[in-house]
Amino acid sequence: MKSKRNAIVGQSGGPTAVINASLYGVIIEALKNKSKIERIYGMINGIEGFLQNQFIDLGNSLTMEELELLKTTPSAYLSSCRYKLPEKFEDAVFKTLFEKFNELNIGYFYYIGGNDSMDTVSKLSHYAEKIGSDIRFIGIPKTIDNDLVLTDTTPGFGSAAKYVASTISEIILDASVYNGQSVTIVEIMGRHAGWLTAASVLSRKNKGDNPVLIYLPEVSFDFEKFLTHLKKALQKKNNVVICVSEGIKDASGKFICEYTSEAAIDKFGHKALKGCGSVLERIIKERMNIKVRSVELSINQRCSSSLISLIDHNGALEAGRQGVLAGLAGETRKMVAFTRDRINDDLTLSCSLVDVDDVCNKEKLIPNAWILDEGTNISEEFVDYALPLIQGQANIPFENGIPRFVYR
Amino acid sequence: MKSKRNAIVGQSGGPTAVINASLYGVIIEALKNKSKIERIYGMINGIEGFLQNQFIDLGNSLTMEELELLKTTPSAYLSSCRYKLPEKFEDAVFKTLFEKFNELNIGYFYYIGGNDSMDTVSKLSHYAEKIGSDIRFIGIPKTIDNDLVLTDTTPGFGSAAKYVASTISEIILDASVYNGQSVTIVEIMGRHAGWLTAASVLSRKNKGDNPVLIYLPEVSFDFEKFLTHLKKALQKKNNVVICVSEGIKDASGKFICEYTSEAAIDKFGHKALKGCGSVLERIIKERMNIKVRSVELSINQRCSSSLISLIDHNGALEAGRQGVLAGLAGETRKMVAFTRDRINDDLTLSCSLVDVDDVCNKEKLIPNAWILDEGTNISEEFVDYALPLIQGQANIPFENGIPRFVYR
């Protein structure tokens, strides 16, 4: 490997509140290692945009002040893509990509994303091996879904979980202001893994508090059982708050949201989910004489800057830094992962490296043993796991009364 | 009037992030005036709950620590109602209410709410005059809609506007991460007045930025014109963010949300609105070949504690205090109102009193001159008006990673 090479970084998949903290970590660590990394490029719209020559020199693009703002700006500063590389290395796209890498004298490739993005890191590193390229490919984990395997948590989850737990605790207050029975259904993101929806349990002050019913995609959903659970809950509580994951499905595997409308399919073959809360709202209206409303937490749960978890934010930043250092140390086909330590009761997250082949295209689900009461409740083990991840608040600069962000 | 009487306070209408700051103001000012006010009672579920003997002694119910938490707890601590007093004084409910007031030796009645609640204050004060009762009736303003007349602003609006402006600025970032054209529709609360939706203009960094189209209930909505506006906007911008008020209606007066489903009607005859964003999403899907999604800010815009405006919060607290003092000074049939002063470029709000008869059942709309570009844009006059109201952040205590609230 030549002594001085360039690095390139991209962001891929859905935005989060801290994906730019990881980008910040990559940039500052790259800039610190001037002796090995000459330039740090940023792909615009990930690998898809890079294929169309969309990239910038990050060392020249941001002032020091903008770099500071990047740390707490949600969404993806470099923009994103949902682009899947072909399965076969014979496809011309691989040759094209490596020609572009070589033109730019790329020695280090850093990709911030979820399991689909790790698929990109895996394929590129295998192709590099095949053609004898010395480029290092490192994945930096990101997803609010917390569904990456071989890591204690994934940056983005802690902040989204803090948003969910805080917002549900406010919705619970709002739901109880009027006399008479009512049902509030809150729909939370999560296609196959229920981690984020389970975080709603952190809103509870005491056992038996709202949200009294929590439904995850890990357990088959049954309409009749649901109505039975609800009737039972209404015997104990006037105002029932229910949290449901967007991805709940029935025993046949049909998504509950599909009971209302056609679901679009994205490029990775995932169904774009929306509306299981509305489906449940309609069924309750049809079958029970009770006031009911549904609320979708929607994109705010992944892009809100006002409830960024400090431990999540620090983890995201550190994952970016450690990714750069791993590449510099000659590692490739690796993803930065987290392990958990406790020092005097405080959680600390340490970074390690795992084989990206063991991570990509896999999903970590909530253990069955953590799901209780016929799939309507979450265990204390989950609380012990998740509570440390929502601790602390990142300090957000304000301007003109609203959070101040950096714009590309 | 006997030298020592009791006071009673209630909350009515929709919750806000600062209605409990007004309640805090009432409680501390009442407790300060021990020589005149012996007890401060709180009606549970407003006048409706009080009729069923639902009330508590607030002097005994809250510890000092809980009282402090009350200041930043959103939603209505005393719970709320949407109860309209009969039009005719012959109705037995008035006699019943005043018998209950007398049983409790009530001398002062404070009601925190919007224009429907001011109708309650007006009717009770007129009835008191008719029967020769010396009870003082004072209204304390509250509504996120900012639609009360004779006051510069209404507590609740500033915080909701800060939430809207901040959240839209995050949605704008989120909306621009993928390549290709897209439309994001954000639906914001506001039945007849567009103040809160207009606050989305505060998200813009520069002229021409998103949200590029803003639709208010003050202007008739036309589907064909809307599609023309949108096509024009897409010529300038890849990712268009549109903000619409839940209450937009067509030239015939039909709510746009009614194009999808039956709208329920509440006790005051207001239609419960939901879904004009979905209606517009569907129409764009049918008529244009473009990626589109709709987001409802839903109840979080009125009950989020994470973006409470400091000036709004202080105003709410002061309105509660001044309401108590007005009653003690012998005033009745009055509402606390705000006037605006500028001291060294900083906005300060001062409290005054207005006749509640001139406020109740009226709605303040956005002036026509402030609505530009065929009803799709908001003028600088609005920005000058609204920007000072979202300044500063209230300090929220946290516990276990989420905001700490007081529960009744």
UniProtKB/TrEMBL annotation, chains A, B:
Record GO cellular component, one term: cytoplasm
Presence of the UniProt keyword Transcription in the record: no
Cofactor: Mg(2+)
Keywords: Cytoplasm, Glycolysis, Kinase, Magnesium, Metal-binding, Transferase
Catalytic reactions on record: beta-D-fructose 6-phosphate + diphosphate = beta-D-fructose 1,6-bisphosphate + phosphate + H(+)
Pathway(s) this gene product operates in, as recorded in its UniProt entry: Carbohydrate degradation; glycolysis; D-glyceraldehyde 3-phosphate and glycerone phosphate from D-glucose: step 3/4
Regulation of its activity: Non-allosteric.
Role, per record: Catalyzes the phosphorylation of D-fructose 6-phosphate, the first committing step of glycolysis. Uses inorganic phosphate (PPi) as phosphoryl donor instead of ATP like common ATP-dependent phosphofructokinases (ATP-PFKs), which renders the reaction reversible, and can thus function both in glycolysis and gluconeogenesis. Consistently, PPi-PFK can replace the enzymes of both the forward (ATP-PFK) and reverse (fructose-bisphosphatase (FBPase)) reactions.
Protein name: Pyrophosphate--fructose 6-phosphate 1-phosphotransferase
Species in which this protein is naturally found: Anaerobium acetethylicum
Phylogenetic lineage: Bacteria, Bacillati, Bacillota, Clostridia, Lachnospirales
Name of encoding gene: pfp
